[in-house]
Amino acid sequence: MNFMNVDLELTSARELGWFIEAVRASMYALHSVVVDGSHRATLELRDIVGDDAESVLERFSEVIEGLDSDAREKWRQIETKAFDIGIQSSTRKHQLSQKISVRTLARVVALGAELHITVYEPDQDDAPGESAIA
User: Which residues make Cβ contacts (< 8 Å) with residue 45, sequence separation at least 6?
Assistant: First the structure.
């Protein structure tokens, strides 16, 4: 198993373009759509800040905490805010440990966000007895 990344997933009754614009120096939108009247956006950090969930969550928190007061008020009104930790499973590496400190969890809670964990199935290239062609 390998840590992949953390995505910030937002769902709101109001448009989210203001947020994407406010954080564009630090994050980019993977997508921003309207589904059944709900505005949804998924964002990632522009720069790699570490190879663990803790580092990425800390950087997301730093960026959001640094928003101006008007943007922070709009942030609080977003109905669903979730940090989704992506893990790539593997047939070769059977365990992965990702520490998230109490300090980082407290920052996530203070932002009104949830933590999600998504585990993706192994790549086909990862099957036992097979080797990837370089």
Answer: 6, 26, 27, 56, 59, 60, 63
